Amino acid sequence: xxxxxxxxxxxxxxxxxxxxxxxxxxxxxxxxxxxxxxxxxxxxxxxxxxxxxxxxxxxxxxxxxxxxxxxxxxxxxxxxxxxxxxx
Length: 87
Prior knowledge:
about 90 residues
């Protein structure tokens, strides 16, 4: 079920990474420039994140867009942009 919040944060992304991927909660993910690769998350792991974001926020993330998202900050910006398009 999509949430009604209009802003997605790095903290929320960290929570998703901890619950879905098993990323340790103490791993610093407050740097928007850190890449999924630097966190040890492969393409399959990112696909899990992509699906969760689509389900949780109700935003479509086409494969061609997903292929351009490499950092945590880019993920947050993309989701927020898509949420803004719905307003």
